[in-house]
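Weekly modeling sync, notes
Attendees: AB, CL, MP (scribe)

Item 1: holo prediction request
CL wants a bound-state model with LAXINWYW before deciding which constructs to order. AB pointed out that an apo prediction alone won't tell us much about the pocket. Agreed to run with the ligand included and paste results into these notes for async review.

Input as submitted:
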Amino acid sequence: MERLSEHACFGGTQGFYRHDSEVIGLPMKFGVYLPPQAAKGPVPVLVYLAGLTCTEETFAIKAHAQEHAARHGLMLVTPDTSPRGTGVAGADAAWDFGDGAGFYLDATQAPWAQRWRMATYVTLELQSIVAREFPADTARTGLFGHSMGGHGALTLALRNPGLYRSVSAIAPIAAPSQCPWGHKAFSGYLGDDRAAWAAHDATELVKSGAKAPPLLVDQGLADKFLAEQLHPHLFEEACRAAGQPLTLRRHEGCDHGYYFIQTVVGDHMAHHAKQLSA
Ligand SMILES: N[C@@H](CCC(=O)N[C@@H](CSC=O)C(=O)NCC(=O)O)C(=O)O
């Protein structure tokens, strides 16, 4: 693992790192915020999955989460959103598919299947690197994310029971089988089999009986993607029918961007801190 930069921040350290990923087969970058408590011993880990077009730096720079992480003693881990520099033709042709748009799943279709393996990367490889290289109490790991990353947080938690002790999402793509972003990603990465899509769709997973820890989801009502792409009401209905605990909060005037994330990120950090210390 190579250290790219480190910056003192709220008594801790924000760092950015690169490593040769065996799962992806290429170098991958990620960020880690170490709170001041990490100087004394292992701390709980909170992984954040970012949205379309983002990198490992976006949340670290724009969300203003480090102050909350320092207060709660949480390590923040921010992976990139896809493989980079793959040489796959067309990977950079669109902002909602390919580069910066890994959708936190393992692709099954050529030419994506070899490199686009973000589910295994996040749940196994990154987890083990964090455990090896940082003072991490990985038995206490939480997961959250925004938009495409909110979809990733919900689906990876629902597909891997017990791996994440706390889960939340901000403006997630909550029913990707029923929106244009999801249709494009799932048909490209998974093919035309709707059963394969359902296995990566938070609403369909809850309908089929998958369970997660009690969920916090925040959604802005002035979000330009809400009506066409996000569909939190479908996820809400599925959770209610299945008995999956969910707190879904709707916020007047808030859009899809990082000003909204700044507004609610403190509540998300408190949610995770409480569940990770239970
Ligand atoms: N280029 C797009 C906008 C892309 C965008 O809004 N990305 C969101 C995530 S959307 C779902 O995953 C984001 O987090 N962007 C980073 C940021 O700094 O805001 C367009 O033209 O609409």
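Recorded for review: The chain is about 35% helix and 25% strand.
Action items: CL to compare against the apo run; MP to circulate these notes.
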